[in-house]
Structures are given as structure tokens and as C-alpha cells.
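Hi, can you check this record?
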Amino acid sequence: MIIKRNYFYIIILSLLSYFFSMYISENYISAPFSDDNYFNDQEVYIDTWNLIENKNTFEAYDIYRSKYASQEIFHFFYIHFLSLIGFTKNQAMSIANFSIVFFLLCIINKHFKPSILILILIITNSYIFSYFFILERFKFAILFLILLIYFYENQKLRFIFFTLSVLSHFSILILYTVIYISKFRDKNFFLGCNFKYKKKILNNNFFFLLFIFIFIFIFYDHLLIKSYQLFHDNTLLSLINSFKVFTFCVLTFFVSQKDKIEELIIQFMPLFFGAFIIEPSRIVGFAYFLFIYHFLQNYKNKKNFLLFFFINLYFSFKTIYMFIILL
């Protein structure tokens, strides 16, 4: 079987991301950690892995809950299962990083046939690297979001990956919510027409909203705790984050379709205000994903492609510079 050139590139780059993750993890992510260490969030993840390794599920879960006041359980099951079957932490996380790169590039390849340079710029983006080495639990929420998009046509898989992404990290609901809120102006959002029976039927979006309400009811206390953890009162940080979100909004305005402007504004408004009070790495990352989302709907425009190229070039150089300083 002949592998198409772009898929060959995707496989090679995914494998490189695996080996690069292994190299960085084994050589640069280790104790002692300091407050200004880029990888300092890994301290608690490494400690947790070492403590639950070779423990039975109930004992391991008690240890995990003592480390994280969290009901976002997918990360626990992932590290517990892989530790039981003999994987190291570095191998487990590198497999997840490989999966993110592979399916993300496959999604990009579905819409247009990017060159090897574009593919490299995408995977060296500083936001992608933050999922590789810093936001370990949130990494899985992003992975399942990517899988949801890749298998979007399969309704059952779409629901499974949506559920798994939420169970990986509740904050991913912010991104899902701003996208769905922007659809409210569509009169068929909750009701779809069944022309065969000549009557209106409830569509999947109604059940999504019902799921959100039930989810909030069940996890209300935990969501309240998480909200306090994410809130900050740093005025300078608030202004910087809001400016970043606003910048992405402007950039997205240039690449979006003209009939999507209202949708774009509705999507970015919650992120703009959220950036004032919520921990920045997720909110600004969501703004970047919205930029990619709108670009892929209007990628044939050459000006849009150039803007997409230079933005990713900037974030790629940002990553390279950061690792030159760190390493």
C-alpha cells in the first residue's frame, strides 16, 4: 500500500514528537524544581505517578485524590493503567503527545494539503507545547476534543469523545459553551425539521444543553472549587491576557467568512471578559483554537493563508527561543 506524501509527513512528525517528548522528559524534567522552572508543574505529576505505581486501583485513587481535589478522573485511569502494564511516565505522556500531533495534523490535512513546513510550524506552536509539558491533565481534554473533531461525522464517537474530554478537564466546557452559544441565533438550533413526517423534532443540540444542565447540577460543588482555583486578581495579568484575546479576535476577523462575524463576536466576548479573572493559559489557548476553527472554514483565501502562516511562524519561533533559553 502506497502512503500519500502528506500522511507520510504526518507519521514522521508524530514519531518525532514522541521521541522529542521522551528526550525532554528524561533529560530536563526532573527534580529539583524551582519557582521559575518552566517545567515546575511536573513536580506533582511525577510525585503522583511514583506514589500510585504498582498500587491497586482503590489505593491508587485515594493517593490521587490526596494530590488533586478533582473529579476529573480520566487522567487517573490513564496513568494508573499504563503504570500497571509497565509503562514509564515519560512513555505514557509521549504516547499522548504523539496522538495529539497525529490527529491534529490529520484534521488540518482534511481541509487543505499543507507543506511539510506548515506542518512543522503547527506542531512547534507554543500553545501545543504547553499541552506537551505543562498542562498534563488538560492535555487529555484537548486530545479528546481533537478526536471529536476528527470523528465528527460519527455521532456515537462524537458523544463519547465529548464526554471523555469533559471528564479529562472541566474547563474545556468553556470552549464548548462559547461555540454553542454562538449558534443560538440559528432558529433551527434546538428544533430540526423532519420533512418525512412533517413535524419538528428535538435535535442533538437540545440534548447537549440538557447534558450541560445535568452536569452542572451533579458537579456543582466541584465546579465552584475549580472556579476559585482558576480566578486571579492580578490587574496587569488581566490586561495582558485580555489584550491577547482581543488580538486573536482581530486576527480571526480577517480570516473568517463575512457571514460568520456575528458568530465570531459572540464567541470571543466571553473569552475577553474571562481573561480578566481566569487563569490565562486556557483562555488564550481557546482564543487560538477559535482562530484555527475560523481559518479552516475559509482557508482558500490566499491572504488568510499568509496570515495563518506568519502567526504560526511567530509562535514556532517563540517555542524555539524558549527552549534555547531553558536548555
In short: The two ends are 41 Å apart (CA to CA). The longest helix spans residues 302-326. Confidence is low (pLDDT under 50) at residues 187-203.
